[in-house]
Amino acid sequence: MASTPLTVIKGDGIGPDIVDAALKVIDALDVDFDYDYVEVGQAALDAGETDPLPQQAIDSIERTGLVLKGPVTTPVGQGYRSVNVAMRKHFDLYANVRPTLSLPGTKSRYDNLDIITVRENTGGMYSGQGQTVSEDGNRAEALSVITRSESEHILRFAFEMARARGRKKVTLAHKANIMKSTSGLFLKVGREIAEEYDDLEYEEVIVDACAMKLVMAPEKFDVIVTTNLFGDIISDLCAGLIGGLGLAPGANIGDDCAMFEAVHGSAPDIAGQNIANPTSVILATALMLDHLDLDDQAERIRQAVRGAMADGDRTTPDIGGEGSTQGFADAIIERL
């Protein structure tokens, strides 16, 4: 069988450390990938590129349609555009999927969570449209645009995914009580689409109430679908419920391309020290295998991660262990 082409973006900071660990895990499975390594973000600029999303990377992704990515540095409040946002827009990766699954051996408050946040990934306030600052620096503006087509795309994706994965309920999080135009349109479209899925329970919740309920009774949630900015916040909240972003994988899915990634930052202060937690990107490889209909291999990775976490002898310092990045990857590989 021919190998599957895969664009690999190691990223910045701890990115190379954790992506190398994930590739070791992939290589231990009976799957065959043809890796094409490209650089984006600060790594690309350091290599002499003038654009943090260089054409070489774009060409590779267009050829493979499949990406495994480490964290990429984006300056806060200034500097170059977000590479993550640029990639999502360029390749129309309209669906952001963030599973929240409890793992053994963590110090999290909950141990029985299985929530999926589905976030519209290209529009809304988070997309960065219309950002301006007055000449005197005293007034800043940004534009939030919600369209029916984008709303239909992500809402139908969420309901279809829930049905395909045997889920029971879809919760639409919104702020239509105040943002009556933008969030109101998203809610209206959600109600229309929900009528087509009478096999699934459907509920609506205002986003601030959603945040409160997630803290108080997260086990009552199954699939959450929402707009771009709200989804960014809610998915991180959910990650905090199971022990942090180091344990949370992410997928960005479009019709012709899919990108799987660690969702945390690049943590440059610990780069190269072999202590970063690789769990997020290793679980992202499991999502990638799901996407390729390699469900058995995906489940093998998840079970191996759970086993290594439960034993705890080689977990990384962020979750209370004394292990290393590569050592934890080895513990997973031994359990494959």
UniProtKB/TrEMBL annotation:
UniProt xrefs under InterPro entries: IsoCit/isopropylmalate_DH_CS, IsoPropMal-DH-like_dom
Source organism of the structure: Salinisphaera hydrothermalis (strain C41B8)
Keywords: Oxidoreductase
DNA damage in keyword set: no
Phosphoprotein keyword on record: no
GO terms under biological process: isocitrate metabolic process; tricarboxylic acid cycle
Family in the record: Belongs to the isocitrate and isopropylmalate dehydrogenases family.
EC number(s) stated in the UniProt entry for this protein: 1.1.1.41
Name of the featured protein: Isocitrate dehydrogenase
Ranges of residues in domain Isopropylmalate dehydrogenase-like: 5-332
Coiled-coil blocks: none
GO molecular-function terms, A-Z: isocitrate dehydrogenase (NAD+) activity; magnesium ion binding; NAD binding
Taxonomic placement: Bacteria, Pseudomonadati, Pseudomonadota, Gammaproteobacteria, Salinisphaerales
